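Q: Can someone sanity-check these two? First one:
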Amino acid sequence: MYRWPTHSGLRKPDYWHQTGSTGDSYDNAMAESINGLYKAEVIHRKSWKNRAEVELATLTWVDWYNNRRLLERLGHTPPAEAEKAYYASIGNDDLAA
């Protein structure tokens, strides 16, 4: 357990935030999987000069992951394109923006 200083506004001033131990991510397995993928593909591949370099690489990777990566289960279509096609197919083009 560790103390979060930003929780000072909670009702109990001495509130302790409990987190699971390393490897106990059953409740957020998908997030942990994406974080692991991000770290393997971006963070651990090189040494970083500064925080700005990491931030730019992160933004670039997130854009690729959300918009351009090809997913086999979507017919080798990027997620953004598949989402746009889905909303167009149900007649809600305005939601695909």
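And here is the second, same format, sequence then tokens:
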Amino acid sequence: MAKFVTPVIQDNPSGWGPCAVPEQFRDMPYQPFSKGDRLGKVADWTGATYQDKRYTNKYSSQFGGGSQYAYFHEEDETSFQLVDTTRMQKTAYQRNRMRFAQRNLRRDKDRRNMVQFSMQTLPKSAKQKERDRLRLQKKFQKQFGVRQKWDQKSQQKPRDSSVEVRSDWEVKEEMDFPRLMKMRYLEVSEPQDIECCGALEYYDKAFDRITTRNEKLLRSIKRIFHTVTTTDDPVIRKLAKTQGNVFATDAILATLMSCTRSVYSWDIIVQRVGSKLFFDKRDNSDFDLLTVSETANEPPQEEGNSFNSPRNLAMEATYINHNFSQQCLRMGKEKYKFPNPNPFVEDDMDKNEVASVAYRYRRWKLGDDIDLIVRCEHDGVMTGANGEVSFINIKTLNEWDSRYCNGVDWRQKLDSQRGAVIATELKNNSYKLARW
């Protein structure tokens, strides 16, 4: 039979509501609120200030402790930082923009003055005096170097030498660039191949058809390149026992022959063993790095770890040349093999990991009892129209920033004005191209 159970009624003499918290609601957090309050914003992206002051507390709670979850915009002084007001150093492109503009204005003014002078009617004696004055002025400038040409600027900053010159060193002979430029060896006999080593892959002629519209990405090819100096070459050590009295590599000889164009510091080591001379490069040096815009009017000047510092640009250019010289070949296919294997490949080394490089040890007799033996390198081989075999070296130039060094944008000019690109690179990289 149904019955009615009377509920427990709590009497609260000092107010209304229960006297104790029920067990199911004992640990539940509670915040007093009012249903008329607006919901506060976590972050006001439309702006923290209001033009009308009436809307300043629009989202604040109007009841009890409800303002705990409302958003107030307060200035946080803990995260306050001073603004760096130091002046940033201008790049070479920005720094010399006014200089080039002033130079062009000065050149136009001189041209107008010359035109105006040529239009004046002078007697014969006055014209002859003016010619004599101009001739003497040019002779004086040429003799004493009063005014430099527009493309012959002085060195902007002192560069570090590749080796420390000690005070106790004795100078045997000093040769300046004008004397070196006049030195020529006109009659050079044909070289004689003494020994040929290594194997070469064939050049892929599909790379001749690449344009800016038909581009091809440069791949990273994991191959080993050996940059062994002269005295560490086992073949040269063997040949030095029986023939030759001067030994070097093609890279060292090319550096010496084009030294009048160089700007950065470098050095080589010459060792005399009995009556024989060995030209070596220094270990762990930057001798094998390919410089970028070394002979430009405004060479790279940035320091430290900047992408455009001279050393980082040289490392990038060397990396590009190594990969490009292998990507242009038909890798994994038929090879042109010389009679002797690569002297720098060890027995336990994978032959596919070694770069396609062959070495020809050539001999020149230069007279005056100079018997020169040089190790020459080749990157690939190419077959001609009649089937003749030609050994080639693959080199490449890379663009780094067309705004500097009076450069041109390759992507815009390489197809239509290829000669302008080559002319600019011949000026900015004359030393590197002379070595090649």
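A (reply): Looked at the second one. The beta strands are 192-201, 246-249, 268-273, 276-281, 335-337, 358-367, 370-378, 380-383, 389-392. The first strand starts at residue 192 and ends at 201.
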